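queue> pop job 88
queue> type: inverse folding (structure -> sequence)
queue> payload:
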């Protein structure tokens, strides 16, 4: 039996990975443990570590780190602390594979700790372009990883171009798509009414997160996003940003925005989050959920600014700057219940089965650990 250790730092990564983690846990050939850290352990972000335990998964440990004040300095120091704590946990748990996702600091810390303990790292969502600091972290994790689960053929090609072995790079699709269409779908009007919004007016789901290199302008850009949505006469529900540097600038604007048409919320359990995304008349912001998951519902997306720069796009995505007039104009062209045909280049909703299969079957030998560039 192979022992898999997954590190989770946020509500977002756990929500994306939940189906895959449950599949790994249910497979008799695999044994799963999860380490919770970061935002999961902060009550101000909803103490979302409880969702890991409530799902029935083995929460092996909690590794608290300082995430406040949200700044680049805090983020860098947290990575250092996580490397230290994760090293201790990996040494104690003796996993056969450390599993990480995406481009966040806790995933980088886990990969650094694992390779120094000679434990293979499997990385999901490598090979994607996004610009900003996220791109550098994502590709750094790629170079620390040994097995790659890419979401698209294009991502696989980029991983190989980065020097990764083709026989170690699999296209699994995005795990966040698993189970989306099988989930219960209630009528739009029922969900909109529960939110306290008027059924005859369109509703936007706002997901707007900070960009490290743009902290001095984040407040102004947040004002532009909200002004653009309200200027179009739309109602909106905004999910508070993650804990990255610059999040306070966004949070303060959200909290002080005087409009009855805006609701803000700290955390939505993933099933609730997905049904609101499916019911909303548009998703507005810079979240990967707009790039990846929203297309499976056909939800129109206004993708704002640079945070998802250069990522592959589905047909439902319109790219705009954080400019109030352009946001208003784009929303005014979207009508109630306007939808794209559900089609998603990021996968078919079967990533979990593929990830499990490759975690069981990929050879774990000395040759795997002795990484070299293939060119």
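queue> result:
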């Amino acid at each position: 039996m192979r022992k898999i250790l997954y590190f989770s730092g946020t509500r977002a990564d756990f929500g994306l990975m939940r189906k895959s983690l449950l599949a790994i846990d249910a497979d008799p050939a695999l044994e799963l443990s999860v380490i919770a850290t970061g935002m999961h352990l902060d009550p101000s972000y909803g103490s979302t570590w409880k969702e890991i335990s409530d799902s029935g998964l083995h929460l092996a440990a909690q590794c608290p780190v300082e995430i406040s004040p949200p700044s680049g300095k805090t983020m860098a120091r947290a990575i250092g602390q996580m490397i230290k704590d994760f090293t201790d946990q990996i040494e104690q748990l003796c996993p056969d594979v450390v599993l990480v996702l995406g481009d966040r600091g806790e995933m980088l810390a886990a990969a650094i700790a694992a390779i120094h303990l000679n434990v293979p790292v499997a990385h999901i969502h490598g090979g994607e372009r996004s610009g900003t600091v996220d791109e550098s972290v994502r590709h750094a994790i790629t170079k620390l990883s040994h097995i790659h689960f890419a979401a698209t053929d294009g991502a696989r090609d980029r991983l190989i171009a980065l020097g990764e072995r083709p026989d170690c790079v699999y296209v699994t699709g995005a795990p966040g798509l698993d189970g989306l269409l099988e989930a219960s779908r209630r009528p739009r009007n029922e969900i909109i009414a529960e939110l306290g919004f008027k059924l005859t007016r369109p509703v936007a789901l706002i997901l707007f997160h900070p960009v490290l290199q743009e902290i001095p302008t984040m407040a102004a850009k947040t004002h532009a996003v909200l002004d653009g949505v309200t200027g179009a006469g739309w109602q909106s529900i905004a999910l508070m940003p993650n804990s990255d540097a610059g999040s306070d600038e966004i949070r303060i604007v959200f909290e002080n925005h005087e409009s009855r048409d805006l609701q803000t919320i700290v955390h939505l359990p993933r099933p609730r989050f997905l049904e609101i995304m499916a019911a909303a008349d548009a998703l507005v912001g810079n979240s990967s959920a707009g790039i990846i998951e929203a297309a499976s519902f056909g939800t129109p997306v206004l993708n704002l600014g640079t945070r998802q720069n250069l990522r592959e796009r589905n047909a439902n995505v319109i790219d705009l700057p954080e400019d109030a007039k352009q946001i208003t104009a784009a929303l005014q062209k979207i009508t109630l219940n306007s939808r794209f045909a559900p089609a998603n280049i990021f996968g078919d909703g079967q990533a979990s089965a593929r990830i499990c299969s490759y975690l069981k079957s990929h050879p774990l030998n000395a040759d795997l650990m002795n990484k070299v560039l293939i060119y």
